[in-house]
Amino acid sequence: MNLDQNIYSKESVKARMLQNATKVWGLKSPQSLDPFVKLLIDAFSTEVFKANNEIQTVNARILEKLAKLLTPSIYTHPIPAHSVAFTQPYESSEVLLEHTEFFFRKQMTSTIKSESDKQLNIPFTPVGNVRINKVHTSIMFVGNTCYSIDDRFNKIPIARFPGKPEDYRKITVGIDVSKYTNENFPKYLSIFCSNPAFEHLDFVYKLLPYISVTSNGNPLFVREGLSYLTENQPDGYEQMFREQSIRNKVIEDIKSIYRHKFIEVTGISNSLFSEPGKLPQNLEFLHGKEEIVKYMENKKFLWLTFEFPPQFSAEILDNFSFVLNAFPIYNRGWKKTEYSLDIMGNNIPLVTDEGEHFLYVDDVQDGDGRKYTEIPFTPADDLKKGLYTVRKGGMERFTSRNAVDMIANVLELTRDEIAAFSLLNRDNVKGVLSEMSDKMKSMVQKVNNAKRNIRQELNYVIMEPVEKTDHTYASFWVTHCTLANHMRPGTELSNQLKSQTIVLLAETLGGAEEQKGTDSIQAYKYALTTRDKIISLEDVKNYCRMVLKDEMRDVRVRRGTMVSNRPKEGFVRTVEVEIVPQNYSFYGRAYWENMSNILRNQIIAKAIDGIEYLVKITNEDVEFQDM
Name one Pfam family in it (predicted). Predict the structure, then answer.
C-alpha cells in the first residue's frame, strides 16, 4: 500500500498525537493541553520522524543490495573512459605492453577557501599488447590535391594537379619507411581510419573492409580490426570464467567500440618499397611537380592505393586520415598495498585516493612470494587454501558504519559526557581535561578532512593464507571514471619511466561511476529480462535506458527495411532506434553523434544476427522565443 510521505513528517505526527491526546483526555482543543505534555509530544514526534527516516533508508539499502547481488557486476561496476592514441617507437619495431601507463596531469580547482588546488595524474594504458613500427604516413594524394602530413597528422596541401577521371574513388598514401632498419618488414600493417566530419554516415566505417588495396599494381589483402599479441591462456573451465570476468568484459567492450575504425593490410614485404624519391606507377605523370619531388627527396616509401566503393564521394575521401601505430587506450592506474595479517586478520583493505574508483584486483601474494588465486566456481568441499575473494564495504565488526562515522560518533559522545569529569577533584584532572580537549580538536579536524577525501566505500581482499605469514601484498587497478572524460584530441600523455609520449586522436569518453539506487535497479531489470542478449524491441529500450540513465527523455523503437550499403546485398530488415535526450544542446551535436555510434556498436554486439540497427539521437529541445 502506497502511503503519502507527508503523513510521516514531523509536523503531521505531532498534529495527530495532539489530536489523540485531546480526545483521550476529553478536552475541547489541543491548546488546552499542559505545556509540559506539548513538550513531550514534540520530542516523541521528532523520534518517530527519525525512526521513519531510518526505516526508509534500510528499505532502500535492502533493495539496492538485492539488486547488486543479482545483477552481473559489469552493469554496476565503474566504467573507465577510453579513446584512441598513437605513438612513435625508438626502435624499428617494438611491442607496447598493456600495462604501460601514460599520464595526463589534470588541475582540480578547490571549492574550499583554505585548501589549495590539487593536481591529479590521470593514467591511461593500451587495451592489449600491440606492435608498433618506426613508420608513418608522410604524403597523401586524393582527388586533385597532394597533402603532406606532419608529426601530429595535420594535412597540409603542397600541390594541386589535374586528376584522372578513373582515380576519383582512389586515395594513394605514401608511408615513410626510411627509418625502418630491421631486415624483415612486418607482414601486416594496422591502420586507424579517421573521418570525423562524416562519421555520422552509417557506411563510412562499415564499408572499410570492402575497399581494395594495391601497392604499385600488386594486390594486397584487407581485413577489419586490430590484432593484439596474445598471452598464454588458461585451459578448461578457468578460461570460460576468465572470459566473463570484469577485466575481460571491460576490455572487450572497448575493443568492439573502435574495431570498425581499424583495418589491417596484409601481404606486405620489403620488395614493395620504392626507390628514394620515386612515385608509384599510377602517379608517375606528377614527376615534374617541383613541390612534390622536393618533399620526397631522400625518402623511401611504401605506396598504398585504396579504391573505395561507389558510396564514397570526393568530399568524404578528402576528409579521411590514415594513422599508423594507433591503438585504443582506457583509463586505469596500478596501485599496490602491503599489509600485515596479524593486525588486520585476513582482510587487506584496497585504499583508493581522491577521485579514484576500484576497478579489479591484479595480483595477491604473501611474504614468501606465493601467488593467490580468486575463488573458482567449484563446490565448497573442494576449496583449498591459497585463495582470495573481493568484498565491498561492510567489513567492520558489529555495525555497517565505516570507521570515520564511528570516530565521529565517539567524539560526539565524549563531548556530551565531558561534564561528568567535574565531579572529580578539579585540580587533579584539569590538566588531563585540557589535554583531552586539544586532542579532540585535532581529531575532529582529521575526521572532517577524511570525510571530505573519502570518495568510495572501501573494497577488501579476504584471503586464506597457505601458512602463517607476516606480510601480504595486493596489487589492483583503479580508474577515475568521469574525471577522465572530455580530454581533447591532440592532448599529450607522457610515460614517467621512459621519455615516451602518446597523443590522443579522439576525445576521451565513456567514463561512468558505479551505478546506485534507481540506476542499479534499472541495470538489474535489463540483466533479468535479457540475459545480456537483445532480441525484442523492449530489450533495446531497456538497454538504452540503462546506458543513458537520466540523460534520456524518451526512446522510440520501430522495425523497417532499407537498401543495404554492402556490395551484392539487396533489402535488409532494420530496427530504427530514435532517442530524445533531456538536454541536447548541453553536450552538442558531435557528442551525440559519437554516442549514437557507440550505442549502435554495443547493441549490434549483443543482438541477434541478420538485423541492421540504426540509432539516431534527435534534438527536441524547446526553444523559448518572444511571442
Answer: T6SS_TssF
Residue with cell 544476427: 609
Please say whether the dihedral angle defined by the alpha carbons of residues 515, 520, 523 and 528, taken in this order, is positive or negative.
positive
Instruction: Tell me the C-alpha distance between 571 and 411, whole Å.
Output: 73
At a CB cut-off of 8 Å and minimum separation 6, what does 329 contact? 82, 83, 84, 85, 102, 124, 125, 126, 127, 502
Q: What number is the average pLDDT over the span 44-61?
A: 84
Q: How far apart are CA 322 and CA 222, in angstroms?
A: 14
* CB-based contacts of 104-111 (< 8 A; 24+ apart in sequence): 104/487, 104/491, 104/492, 104/493, 106/483, 108/355
- The C-alpha cell at 608 is 541477434
Contacts 24+ apart (CB under 8 A), 618-625: 618/578, 618/579, 618/580, 618/584, 619/584, 619/585, 619/589, 620/553, 620/580, 620/584, 621/583, 621/584, 621/585
CB 317 within 8 A of CB 142: yes
Q: Distance between CA atoms of 217 and 281, rounded to whole angstroms? A: 8
Give the pLDDT confidence score for residue 397 in this predicted structure: 40
Cell numbers for 407: 570516530
Q: What is the pLDDT of residue 398?
A: 34
Enter the DSSP assignment of 428.
H
DSSP assignment string, 467-522: S--SEEEEEEEEE-GGGG--PPTT-EEE-SSSS-EEEESS--B--BPPP-THHHHH
Name which of 591, 559, 475, 493 is nearest 196 in CA terms: 591
Q: How many residues does the chain have?
A: 627
Cell of 97: 605492453
Distance (Å) of CA 466 to CA 54, 70, 372, 463, 538:
43, 31, 9, 9, 50
Answer yes or no: are the C-beta atoms of 390 and 474 closer than 8 Å: no
Mean pLDDT of 86-105: 92
What DSSP state is assigned to residue 279? Answer: P
- Report which listed range, 65-69, 259-263, 283-287, 598-602, is most confident: 259-263
Rounded Cα gap, residues 555 and 564, in angstroms: 24
Distance CA 497, CA 442 (A): 39
Q: Lowest-confidence range among 14-18, 133-137, 243-247, 415-419?
A: 415-419
d(CA 475, CA 334): 7
Residue 128 has pLDDT above 90, yes or no: yes
- Average the pLDDT over each of 158-162, 184-188, 458-462, 517-521 and give the range with the smallest value: 517-521
pLDDT above 50 for 524: yes
Q: Per-domain residue ranges for the chain? A: 5-70, 130-145+169-322, 403-453, 518-617
Q: Amino acid identity, residue 562?
A: M
Instruction: State the alpha helices, DSSP H only, in 71-100.
Output: 73-76
In this prediction, residues 127-144 reach a mean pLDDT of 93
With 0-12 / 13-18 / 19 or more C-beta atoms within 10 angstroms meaning exposed / middle / buried, residue 288 is: exposed
CATH number of 518-617: 3.30.70
Looking at residue 605, its pLDDT comes to 83
Q: Could you give the CA distance from residue 91 to residue 87 in angstroms, rounded to a whole number?
A: 12
H helix runs in 25-124, sequence order: 35-70, 73-76
Residue 461 reports pLDDT greater than 90: no
What average pLDDT score do residues 82-111 get? Answer: 89
pTM (2 decimals)? 0.77
